[in-house]
Amino acid sequence: MVGVLLLLGGLIFLAFTKAEWHRPTATLVDQRDTLGANGTIDVRVHDVGTGLKRSRIELESEGIRTVLLSEEYPADTWRRSTTFETTLSVPLGGGEHKIAEGPATIRVYAEDYSWLRWFRSRQPLLEHTLRIDLTPPNLEVLSREHYVNQGGADLVLYRTAEDATRSGVTIGDYFFPGTPGLFTDATIRVAFFAVPHDVGRNATARVVAEDEAGNLRALSLHATVKQKHFPTKTLRLSTGFLERKVPEILAANGLPAEPDLVKGYLYINRTMRRANELRIREVTRQSVPRPLWTASFLRQPNAAPSSGFGDHRSYVHDGEEIDTQTHLGFDLASVRRAEVTAVNTGKIVLAAPLGIYGNAVIIDHGLGIFSLYGHLSAIKVEVDQDVTRGEIVGHTGETGLAGGDHLHFSIMLYGIHINPVEWWDARWVDTHVTSRLASYPRADALVNDADRELEALDADREATPPGNDAGEDAPRS
After folding, report:
1. What values do phi and psi take at 426, rounded to 5?
2. What is the pTM of this model?
3. What would the mean pLDDT of 268-292 be, rounded to a whole number?
4. Containing domain of residue 319, as a range?
C-alpha cells in the first residue's frame, strides 16, 4: 500500500513538474506592415513553466518557406530549461537568404520542456502577414551650385518618390526636413539646409529619402562651404551686474535664490541657456509648409550692431575667465524702448518669457525659417497671430541676460541659428531662394504680382550696395 502511494505521489509530482499544460507564447516587438532591407524581425518568446527548449522563425514568400533563425536552449536541471524568455532578432538584409519582394508571412514556433510537447500540434505560436520592400526611393538632386557660408544656409530642390515618408538634407549630426506640395510636380520637394557654426570642415551634406519600410537612399550634395572666422570677444561681468541680474532671472523663472552670484550666473549661462535652446527647438519643430515671407528680410531701422553672429564670448569676472559661449545672433541697439518690427510676414509661435532671452517673440516665416526677438520690454503680439512685414511686435528692453537696452535678433532654421546677414541681403535671397523656387511651376498662388511689386520695392529701397555681399560678417546700420 505504501508503495502504491509513493508511486502515485511520484506520478503526481511528475505531472506537475513535467506535464505543463501551457504552451510558450510569442509576440512581435514591432508589428509593422512593411519591412525593408535594413529592417529587423524582432520576436519575444516566453514560457512560464518548464522553460524554452527550442525556437524558430520562418518566412514564407512566393510559396517558399525559409528558416531565418533556429535556436536550442539547454536544460538547467532534469526539470527545467536555462531560458524562460528570449528575444529573437533577425536582420532581413545582408543575410545568406534571398528574400523576394512582395507579400510574405512570418511564422514563429517554439517548444518547452514539457512532456506534453510530443502530443501538441505543430501550429505556429505567431503568424503575421506583411509586405517585403527592399528598394529605396528614387532620388534626384535638381538644384546646382550650392555655395554656403559656414553658419549660413541654402535651398535645395530634389525629386523623390511620393512614397518617401522622410526626406531632406543631413550634414554632420543635423537633419533638415524637406517639404512637398509646392510644385505642380508632386515628386519635387524643397529643403533649406544649414552649415551650422559648429560643423567641422570635412562634414558632407547629403540629400536623403526614406520610405515606410526604412529603405534609405542618400546622394552627396555638391556644396562648396566657405569657412568663416568668428571673432573672439571678452565680456567683463561686474559685481553690480551679477547682483542685479542673477536674482532677477532666477526669480523670473521660478528658481530659488543663489547666494553665490558666480554659481548662479553659471547656472543661467549654461544650464538655462541649454534649456532655452531645447524650448526653441520644440517651438520651431513644425513650420508652415510654404514661404510666408515677401522679398528680403528687414533690418531693424536705425539700429547699430554691438555683437554679431558666431562671436566666441569669453566671460570674465574679477580678472578670471569663468565661462565661454557662442553668440548665435545679432545684438542691435538704437534708443531705449525702440519699436521692434517683424522682419517679414509670418505667424507668431511664441510670445512669452524665454529664460536668458527675457521677453521674446518667435515668428514662423514658413519652410522652417523663423526669426527670434529677445530682451523685449513689451510684447505686442500673441501666439497664432498673423503679422506682416514691418509690423510692430514689441519694444526693446533689457529683460533676460541683457546688460543694457537692446534687441537680440536671430534667424533660425528649425531652431538652428543661422547668420541673419544673408536674409538681409536682397540679392542673396533672390539668388539662393526666390529664383530656385521659380525654377518649376508652382502649385500655389503665392508668387503673384503683389509679391513681385514688394520685391521690386525692396530691391530699390534696401538692396545691398556693390561690394557687400552675404559673405560679410556684419550688416550696415
Report:
1. -60, -35
2. 0.82
3. 96
4. 232-422+449-462
